[in-house]
Amino acid sequence: MKIISTKVHGVLDYLLGFTLILLPWILDFNEYGIQSSIMVGLGMFTVLMSIFTRYELGVWKKIPMAGHLFLDALVAVILIASPWVFGFADQIYLPHVILGATELVAVILSDSKSDIKDNVMDKSDVYHQVSKDSNNPLEEGFRPRKKPATN
Fold first, then answer.
1. Which long-range contacts (CB under 8 A, 24 or more apart) does 93-99 make?
2. E strand or H helix that includes residue 108
3. What's the pTM value of the predicted model, to 2 decimals?
4. Neighbours of 25 (CB within 10 A)
5. pLDDT of residue 56
């Protein structure tokens, strides 16, 4: 059962993204290097991915929700594993693990189908746009462009 709608998931994405970006300064580990770089990089990726996702809070709506959830899961796994993979678990690991696990739970509980329609218009959409106000499909603004005359 998917209990997190795509709209709520969008809110969580932006919150997580900005939290990842700011947390190294909030917890004062921004000078350590890779620990903060991973968080900031994954936070920026999360915000950018959210901007391009085809859901209610996306701006350019290019990434399908299922693809977004796959990338979210990948970010979560990288975040959880990074303290040991990059060798800084002896300095700090809890923020990475907690935020990664939280993101993974959000992915599991989120709906993978958004109500947002694809940006691609089919022929019936074009016909509907042309004919909704008039019976003349060649109304001003919808005429094909004439090629300029060649000399």
1. 95/23, 95/27, 95/39, 96/35, 96/38, 96/39, 99/16, 99/19, 99/20, 99/23, 99/39
2. helix 94-109
3. 0.76
4. 12
5. 94
